[in-house]
C-alpha cells in the first residue's frame, strides 16, 4: 500500500489533516457498516490516558453520540506482542486495524499481514504522531487524542 503524504497544516477539523492511501477514500463506505475491529496493543488505554476498561468509543466520543453507539456495535479483537498473529480472525465483514506506529512493531506488522491475507476488505489505521512507514497504514491520523480519535470514528461511521 502506498500512502499519500499530502499532510496539510493543522486544521479546525482533525480529519482534514489525515493522510490516505490513494484508494482508501473510495472504499471508506465499506467500513461504515458492521466491521470487525482489530485493536493493536500499541493503542492501549494507558497510551490513550483513559481508564483501563474504556472502549475506543468511550475514549473518543461523547456519551450517547451516534458515532460512539455505532462504533460500539462492532466486535473488537485486541492483539498484543505475545499473541499468535495467525489466530486473529477470518471474517467476511470488513476489518479495521487500529494501532500506533505500526511499521515499528514486529507483532503489528505480522498481524496486519495475516489479516490482509485472510480478509477481503481491510483498512489499516496508524495513529502515531508521525508516520513510521507507508506499508502498514492505509490511513494515518498523526495522533490519537480525543479530537483525532473522534474524527476517525465519525469518518468510519458516517452515512
Notes on the protein architecture:
The protein is of the alpha/beta class and 159 residues long. The chain contains six helices and six strands, in the order βαβαααββαββα. β4, α5 and β5 form a beta-alpha-beta unit. α4 packs across α6. It starts with 18 loop residues before the first strand and ends with a helix. The relative contact order is 0.24. The N terminus is likely disordered.
Give a short overview.
The protein is of the alpha/beta class and 159 residues long. The protein has helices spanning 24-27, 45-48, 56-60, 66-72, 106-118, 146-157; strands at residues 19-20, 36-40, 76-79, 95-99, 122-126, 139-140. Strand 4 (95-99), helix 5 and strand 5 (122-126) form a beta-alpha-beta unit.
Shape: globular
Straight-line N-to-C gap:
26 Å
Overall pLDDT score: 84
N-to-C SSE string, H for helix and E for strand: EHEHHHEEHEEH
Which strand order spans the largest sheet, edge to edge or round the barrel?
1-6-5-4-2-3
Strand percentage: 5-15%
Main beta-sheet annotation: 6 strands, mixed
Spans of at least 5 consecutive residues with low confidence:
1-10
The percentage helix is 25-40%
The total strand number stands at 6
What structural category do the secondary elements indicate?
A: alpha/beta
Number of helices, counting only DSSP H or I runs of 4 residues or more: 6
Rg (C-alpha, Å) = 14 Å
Features:
28% helix; disordered N terminus; alpha/beta; 14% strand; 159 residues
Which helices and strands, and how do they pair?
Layout (H helix, E strand, L loop, with lengths): L18 E2 L3 H4 L8 E5 L4 H4 L7 H5 L5 H7 L3 E4 L15 E5 L6 H13 L3 E5 L12 E2 L5 H12 L2
Parallel strand pairs: 2-3, 2-4, 4-5, 5-6
Antiparallel strand pairs: 1-6
Amino acid at each position: 500500500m502506498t500512502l499519500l503524504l499530502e499532510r496539510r497544516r493543522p486544521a479546525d477539523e482533525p480529519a482534514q489533516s489525515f493522510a490516505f492511501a490513494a484508494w482508501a477514500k473510495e472504499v471508506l463506505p465499506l467500513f461504515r457498516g458492521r466491521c470487525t475491529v482489530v485493536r493493536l496493543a500499541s493503542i492501549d488505554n494507558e497510551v490513550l490516558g483513559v481508564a483501563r476498561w474504556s472502549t475506543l468509543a468511550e475514549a473518543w466520543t461523547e456519551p450517547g453520540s451516534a458515532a460512539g453507539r455505532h462504533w460500539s456495535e462492532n466486535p473488537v479483537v485486541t492483539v498484543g506482542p505475545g499473541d499468535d498473529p495467525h489466530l486473529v480472525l477470518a471474517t467476511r465483514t470488513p476489518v479495521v486495524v487500529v494501532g500506533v506506529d505500526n511499521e515499528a512493531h514486529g507483532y503489528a506488522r505480522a498481524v496486519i499481514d495475516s489479516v490482509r491475507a485472510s480478509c477481503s476488505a481491510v483498512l489499516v489505521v496508524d495513529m502515531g504522531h508521525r508516520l513510521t512507514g507507508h506499508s502498514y497504514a492505509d490511513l494515518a491520523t498523526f495522533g490519537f487524542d480525543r479530537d483525532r480519535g473522534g474524527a476517525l470514528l465519525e469518518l468510519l461511521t458516517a452515512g
